[in-house]
């Protein structure tokens, strides 16, 4: 679209097309955020309450809010098939169409909470498909120098969507006694989705997906490592769900990476972020805050402002340490929030407690927006092998939506039973999240997706040492040793291990441990070079 126009990032030319792709696809994040932002305010609207929450029970409210998460869970699993079969672009366009259909069902609801809940479920199917397709598409298309920032832009647009939903609800609160108020708010989501549904048709398809479909002409000039890995992966056929949990194709640590991705995304929701954004207005209303919708605006503004920091952090500081420190910081402020809330119940006449709780919530949200918000999506986009990436990404996203569903379902009941003490549980979940990252997540910053596979294949490399690992043939993670690559694209032994399984695992220095079934053993680097010359 932009021809050869580019700008230099970390010494490498990055085309304008990559930035256009980031802007268009990140609208998927805006839609998710907008729903979070608007539902918190709409729940307080008088007409909406009269029509759908007439029973006033926590069960009806929790089902209405959380059933979008159920739809997203199923949509994310469906997204694995549509992303592989239709391609990344068409899968995203399909997700937009389903999302719009769900919004139409919601807007036409009259007085049945089942009707509007069904609409939220259908919208969730579309949103779930988008939440798989968008980060994966971004990770596969973006240059590695800006890959973290591009995928982080998805979370940035989520925060902007939340804030925009808060603003719309705040400005229409004067019409909350009329049904058109909440109908307009919900219907605007369908309008916002159109730029994504149409714009995605003008973005090139993922080169890795095209190469896997033998449509190599478009990606003929891409990196040699990517082309050779894809060539070998095509020979092994398509991956099954079984392979995500059991080692059949001998892709390194497949099951390990599947559960790691699922764990990080489930824990992202259980950091407690949507405790504030789904029910924040209700929670702060119970804390005697006079204008809870204004409080939501404050939280949303903090969320957006610090999300810009997240785009910077993800490429400058890597993945592991921001997640670990972010979870620890979030646990601290959740403890403060819950402690203040528990004390405030003894003196409900004071507004000082409510203000202190808002400050604690802002500090928590600032950390999440800069760390767990964007980086969990970045990790999902770059941790999995291409062969199983779509299915593993869908499982990770499904775990995210399962966590989202449980937060939406349980919060009203927890609020009634233990009130602000729910914050202590969420603080504990943050500490668990920090431990999971420290023990299991490898540092993938500045690595190509193909070299991430090689890193996970190394037997004696621990996650906490992985930040210092450099791929074979590289001087640093950004600088290749051109002499190493002269006459050979990448070590054939490493590539075979990742795709066909003829070689087993690699040592920390890149040397290969032979597969006992490979009688001849792996070839030396010199033999590989000789083979390459014979093929030319």
UniProtKB/TrEMBL annotation:
Disordered, as annotated region: 508-536
Entry keywords, A to Z: Membrane, Sugar transport, Transmembrane, Transmembrane helix, Transport
Gene Ontology MF: a single term: carbohydrate:proton symporter activity
Localization terms from the record: Membrane
Recorded GO CC terms: plasma membrane
Domain Major facilitator superfamily (MFS) profile, chain residue ranges per copy: 21-445
Pfam families: Sugar_tr (PF00083)
Superkingdom field: Eukaryota
PROSITE patterns (UniProt xref): MFS, SUGAR_TRANSPORT_1, SUGAR_TRANSPORT_2
Membrane topology, from the record: Multi-pass membrane protein
Compositional bias (Basic and acidic residues): 524-536
Transmembrane intervals: 12-32, 52-80, 92-109, 121-137, 149-168, 180-203, 258-281, 293-314, 321-343, 355-380, 392-411, 417-441
NCBIfam families the record matches: SP
Record-stated family: Belongs to the major facilitator superfamily. Sugar transporter (TC 2.A.1.1) family.
Official protein name in the record: General substrate transporter
Species this protein is from: Trichoderma longibrachiatum ATCC 18648
């Amino acid at each position: 679209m932009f021809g050869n126009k580019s700008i230099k990032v970390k010494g490498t030319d990055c085309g304008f097309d990559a930035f256009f792709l980031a802007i268009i696809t990140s609208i998927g994040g805006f839609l998710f955020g907008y729903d979070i932002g608007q539902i918190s305010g709409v729940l307080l609207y008088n007409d909406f309450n009269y029509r759908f929450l007439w029973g006033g029970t926590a069960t009806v409210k929790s089902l209405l809010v959380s059933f979008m998460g159920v739809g997203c869970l199923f949509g994310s699993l469906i997204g694995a098939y549509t992303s592989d079969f239709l391609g990344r672009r068409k899968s995203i366009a399909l997700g937009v169409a389903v999302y719009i259909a769900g919004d139409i069902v919601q807007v036409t609801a009259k007085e049945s909470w089942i009707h509007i809940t069904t609409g939220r479920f259908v919208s969730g199917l579309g949103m779930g498909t988008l939440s798989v397709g968008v980060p994966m598409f971004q990770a596969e298309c973006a240059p590695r120098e800006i890959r973290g920032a591009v995928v982080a832009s998805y979370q940035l647009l989520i925060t902007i969507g939340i804030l925009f939903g808060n603003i719309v609800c705040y400005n229409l609160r004067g019409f909350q006694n009329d049904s058109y108020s909440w109908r307009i708010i919900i219907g605007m989501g369908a309008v916002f989705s159109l730029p994504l549904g149409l714009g995605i048709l003008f973005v090139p398809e993922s080169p890795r997906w095209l190469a896997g479909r033998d449509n190599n002409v478009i990606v003929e000039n891409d990196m040699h490592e990517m082309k050779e890995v894809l060539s070998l992966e095509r020979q092994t056929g398509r991956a099954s769900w079984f392979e995500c949990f059991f080692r059949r194709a001998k892709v390194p640590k497949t099951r390990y990476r599947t559960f790691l991705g699922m764990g990080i995304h489930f824990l992202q929701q259980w950091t407690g972020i949507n405790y504030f954004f789904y029910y924040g207005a209700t929670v702060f209303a119970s804390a005697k805050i006079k204008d809870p919708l204004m409080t939501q605006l404050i939280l949303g503004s903090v969320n957006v402002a610090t999300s810009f920091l997240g785009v910077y952090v993800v490429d400058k500081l890597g993945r592991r340490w921001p997640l670990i420190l972010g979870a620890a910081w979030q646990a601290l402020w959740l403890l403060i929030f819950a402690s203040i809330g528990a004390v405030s119940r003894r003196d409900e006449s004071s507004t000082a407690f409510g203000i202190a709780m808002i400050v604690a919530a802002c500090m928590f949200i600032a950390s999440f927006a800069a760390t767990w918000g964007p980086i969990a999506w970045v990790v999902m986009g770059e941790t999995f092998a291409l062969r199983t990436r779509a299915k593993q990404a869908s499982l990770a996203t499904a775990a995210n939506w399962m966590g989202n569903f449980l937060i939406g379902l349980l919060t009203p009941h927890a609020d009634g039973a233990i009130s602000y003490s729910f914050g202590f549980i969420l603080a504990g979940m943050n500490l668990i999240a920090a431990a999971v990252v420290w023990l299991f997540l490898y540092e993938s910053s500045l690595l190509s997706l193909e070299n991430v596979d090689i890193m996970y294949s190394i037997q004696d490399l621990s996650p906490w040492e992985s930040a210092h690992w450099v791929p074979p043939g590289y001087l640093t993670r950004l600088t290749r040793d051109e002499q190493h690559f002269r006459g050979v694209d990448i070590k054939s032994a490493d590539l075979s291990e990742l795709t066909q399984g003829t070689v087993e695992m690699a040592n920390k220095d890149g040397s290969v441990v032979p597969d006992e079934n490979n009688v001849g053993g792996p070839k030396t680097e010199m033999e590989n070079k000789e083979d390459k010359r014979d093929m030319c």
